[in-house]
Amino acid sequence: MKNPRACLPKWCWPKWRWIALVLAIAAVAFILWQLDGAWEYGAMPTKGLFRTIMFASGAVVCLLIPKVLSRLDDPD
Amino acid sequence: MRCANVLAVLLVITAWLSVAYYWDPTRIYVKRFKADNAYVYDEIRSEHSAADPGQFISITDVKSADEARIRLSQVIWGQPSPPLDLLPRIVRKNLLENRPGTDDCSALQHSGNETYLRLKCQLDRYEDWPHLAGVDELIVDAGPVYSASVAYFRPKTPNGILVVYQNGYASTYHHQYRNLERLIASGFTVAATNHTGYGDNRCPRDSKSAVWCAVGWARYDVPLPMRVHFSPLVATINYGIKESEFDHVTMIGLSAGGWITSVLAAVDQRIDFSYPVAGFMPPYLQREGETPPNQTYKPLFEAASMMDQFVLAADLPKRRQIQFFNRYDRCCYENTRALLYEPEVRKRVEGLGGGVFEVRIDETHARHKISRWALDTIVSDIVEHVGK
Fold it and tell me: In chain A, which among 1-60 make CB contacts under 8 A with chain B?
């Protein structure tokens, strides 16, 4: 079965690869935040961590929406 | 479906860009890219590099240094020396064990204004620090109806050095908790206070003290207004020396607190080492809109210019002042302008037979803060030069 894909014009990747990428960036942001004290004045401020996780969560939700919708359309 | 996919891909890219925007090492490139011109962070304006910093320094010998210090003290306290007998009016010992009432903390917390943070409401933040023996609160009268609060953090294994920390505008020392924790873990006793008008030093608008807080915003309607900034710190040093007989007194200040650090080090010779961070720029090097409200009291600068004050802060062999500036500061005093006056001030300090004056440029971030690098440098400098 063909992998579901997410594309920009002329740029398609399997969805799992996008999800891996977005989880990686959330993890990177979290580790940078932790390494410098997990606070607002660290090398990665708390505000930056929140923003990054917010964008990453949005991306995951958008990637999974088609799958959820298709299940709702075809519950069997 | 396709729309959700495209949005997802854009959000993935935005998440990566977000890390680049917020993480200090990459933020520097973002800020440089966004700078209006090369003079913001990189180039020095020709009129700045051509100016002779020596023309702004009047101190030439020990006598003129002593006279300048007396003039400063007269402007601040109306007497020729700091009030060495001034002590806190109230000392609340061991706040972690004797918790004060916190009825109004919830209202302050929900006000949404982080600059209202009060010590009694923030004690939970400090109670688990492994190297902290206790926190006291000093209440110091700095005028007939204005009192300032100083948090006095006692380490479990004190190293005989008092660090006075002065915060600046737009936040409180509670926001610097990681830096305070690191100082305490190194054995320093830390006395931290806020700028006038912040945290416990806030004056409600309709209160009698409001006119005193207004000094922090360039309204000088009270007698000897500069007391507001400096009396609480002098009383704290008096108290610290009386209680613990410290070997050294040092001072660190951020932003507007950096300027307060610089002036107090000039006027109070008990401060051996001083480290102002991103706190000022001599007027001849300032860009438009770079003078903060608390640096507008003319009599203070008529008594001794800002650069005279730098010389005074390192006028004895045992005294050191290292000024830190953030090269890519989002707020102010950015670039490497401060290096222009360093050689001249150092020459004058040497001429007095004084100690060390240095300017260090922090290139590790693009914010208005004390970075890990800056604090590490400060701690190493203190430890290295104690007893010399």
Answer: 5-8, 11, 18, 21-22, 25-26, 28-29, 32, 36-37, 39-45, 47-49, 51-52, 55-56, 58-60
Are A59 and B8 inside 8 Å of each other by CB? yes
Of A21, A48, A62, the CB nearest to B18: A48
Distance from CA of A4 to the nearest CA of B (A): 10
* CA B350 – CA B356 distance, rounded (Å): 8
Mutate one of B3, B14, B23, B31 to test the A interface: name it (highest A CB count within 10 A). Answer: B23
Give the Cα-Cα-Cα angle B142, B145, B151 (nearest 5 degrees): 50
Distance CA B82, CA B64 (A): 18
Could you tell me if A68 lies within 8 Å of chain B, comparing CB atoms?
Answer: no
A49 to A20, A27, A54, A62: CA distances (angstroms): 18, 10, 8, 20
Question: Looking at residue B205, what DSSP letter applies?
Answer: T
**Location of structure tokens 């005074």:** B312
Question: Quick check: B18 and A40 CB within 8 A?
Answer: no
A8 has a pLDDT exceeding 80 = no
Cβ distance B295 to B280 under 8 Å?
A: yes
DSSP state of B144: S
| Whole-number Å distance between alpha carbons of B314 and B321 | 6
Q: Retrieve residue B188's tokens.
A: 């320093």
C-alpha distance from A75 to closest chain B C-alpha (Å) = 18
Lowest mean pLDDT among A58-72, B150-164, B345-359: A58-72
Nearest one of B345, B343, B378, B386 to B362, comparing CA atoms = B378
Task: Report the predicted TM-score, pTM, of the whole model to 2 decimal places.
Answer: 0.94
**How far A1 CA sits from the closest chain B CA (Å)?**
19
H or E element at residue B147: strand B147-155
Query: What is the C-alpha to C-alpha distance for residues B280 and B287, in angstroms, rounded to an integer?
Result: 11
Is the dihedral angle over the CA atoms B379, B304, B86, B120 positive or is it negative?
negative
Place of tokens 């003129």: B64
pLDDT one-digit tens code per residue, B7-59 = 888 999 999 999 999 999 999 999 999 999 999 999 999 999 999 999 999 99
Domains (ranges, CATH) in chain B? Answer: 62-96+116-385 (3.40.50.1820)
Q: Exposed, middle or buried, B205 (CB in 10 Å: 0-12/13-18/19+)? A: exposed
Predicted complex ipTM = 0.89
Name B162's Cβ contacts closer than 8 Å, sequence gap at least 6: B188, B189, B190, B191, B237, B240, B241, B244, B246, B248, B249, B250
In total, chain B counts a number of residues equal to 388
- Which tens digit of pLDDT belongs to each residue from B309-351? 999 999 999 999 999 999 999 999 999 999 999 999 999 999 9
